[in-house]
Structure of tRNA N6-adenosine threonylcarbamoyltransferase:
Amino acid sequence: MNVLGIETSCDETGVALYSTERGLLAHTLYSQIAVHREYGGVVPELASRDHVRKTLPLVQEVLDCAKLTAKDIDAVAYTAGPGLVGALMVGATISRSLALGWGVPALGVHHMEGHLLAPMLEEDRPEFPFVALLVSGGHTQLVRVDGIGEYQILGESLDDAAGEAFDKAAKMLGLPYPGGPQIARIAEDGDPKRFNFPRPMINRPGLDFSFSGLKTHTLTTVRALEAEAPLTDQDKSDIARAFEEAVVSTLVIKCRRALEQENLHRLVMAGGVSANRNLRKQLAETLGKQGSEVFYPAPQFCTDNGAMIAYAGAQRLAAGQVDGTEVQVRPRWPM
Ligand code: KG4
Ligand code: ZN
């Protein structure tokens, strides 16, 4: 079965083709970062308009790349939420129209389920059960995964998501959107000993997160330095380093705790922040010491993409879960 996957929940238009027999056949992505950068964040109306322009040409591109035609497609999967309502509506409407025209089923996929299953696109894929750390611009969650559709939230952020915290800290340092990769880049030149930022919630039991205090601490540090003189590049790098260290060690501590609590030895990490090299390194080191394995998607499938939606849709289709014909999206949608 060949499933077309369409992702339009935020600022990337992702389209891919997944075959249940042959794996990923083609994928393509158009990022709107350049459109939103001058506004310092995603402008929902501009995002919707750009998805309208880009989605169909990208569908044609993946069909051509896989040397398939519409007749070869068995289902269309799309992101039905959570995300920006207008952006979701574009993907849902195009997907449902294609499915209706082609006479095949359409499936609305949960965006975070897509992220969670993205490591399954790799050759070295985890077996169930495992714990997943989902870290994106909108979510920070630890989830116990016993199978497709069998998800139990173990902990989540009580305020900002990890990616959102990265983006806000970057803004304070005058770095462009999206801030995560920018912080990571300048943190490489930072002095790890100059600042020690708090590790939020690590002394409390449980698996929830909170990143807003860290955000405030970053702002206070920036303001204190700026009161003396404008920030130098070294100041920015040192702050970025301390910030990244605090987020990374908080995430690592909670992951270790989640595996211990669930008595599991496999951790899957997904979502945009899982592209962070420092996080990958420290997780692998810490969990490796306790005999656990860490699985990640390939870097291009850490951030939003169509492949994860095509894959999740294929699993849902195989399980016989086809939706009705109405176009329904859920901007807020608990997993
Ligand atoms: O999963 P994603 O592409 O979109 C959402 O579903 O939100 O995640 C985007 C988030 C942004 O907040 C971005 O700053 C962050 O992931 N991000 C990173 C890195 N690459 C992307 N954060 C830290 N380090 C990175 N290397
Ligand atoms: Zn995402």
